[in-house]
């Protein structure tokens, strides 16, 4: 298996990924894919939608083995969640 090297700093990767998502991809994927993950190649604009990051990434890398990938979960601020799912109030 080849080692995949990142060619951009994290901030640049995120900036380009968000820009591509908002300007070119969002309108195509949001209507019927809430909660799914989008893997975006920030150099070509190619993307894949799947239920999880591994499947989306594998599909994108199959198309372009040198992709510089950024992820977003449709309808959420982050791709993964850490900690508890909700806060319960005690009376």
Notable characteristics:
alpha+beta; 2 helices; 34% helix; 91 residues; 3 strands; 3-stranded antiparallel β-sheet; globular
Short summary of the structure?
With 91 residues, the protein is α+β, with helices and mostly antiparallel strands.
Molecular structure report:
By secondary structure, this protein is α+β, with helices and mostly antiparallel strands. The chain has one domain. Helices cover 34% and strands 15% of the residues. The protein contains 2 helices and 3 strands, in the order H-E-E-H-E. It has helices at residues 10-29, 53-63; strands spanning 37-41, 47-50, 69-73. A 3-stranded antiparallel β-sheet has the order 2-1-3, sandwiched between helices. Residues 87-91 have low confidence and may be disordered.
What's the layout of helices and strands?
Blueprint lengths: L9 H20 L7 E5 L5 E4 L2 H11 L5 E5 L18
Antiparallel strand pairs: 1-2, 1-3
Principal-axes geometry comes out as globular
**Spatial sequence of strands, sheet with the most strands:** 2-1-3
Derived from helix and strand composition plus strand pairing, the structural class reads: alpha+beta
Helical coverage, percent range? 25-40%
Distance linking N and C termini? 55 Å
**Tally of distinct domains:** 1
Quick one: biggest sheet? 3 strands, antiparallel
């Amino acid at each position: 298996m080849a080692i995949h090297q990142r060619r951009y700093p994290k901030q640049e990767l995120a900036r380009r990924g968000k820009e591509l998502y908002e300007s070119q991809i969002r309108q195509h994927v949001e209507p019927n894919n809430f909660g799914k993950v989008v893997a975006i190649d920030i150099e070509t604009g190619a993307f894949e939608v799947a239920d999880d990051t591994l499947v989306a990434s594998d599909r994108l890398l199959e198309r372009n083995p040198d992709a510089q990938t950024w992820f977003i979960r449709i309808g959420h601020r982050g791709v993964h969640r850490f900690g508890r799912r909700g806060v319960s109030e005690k009376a």
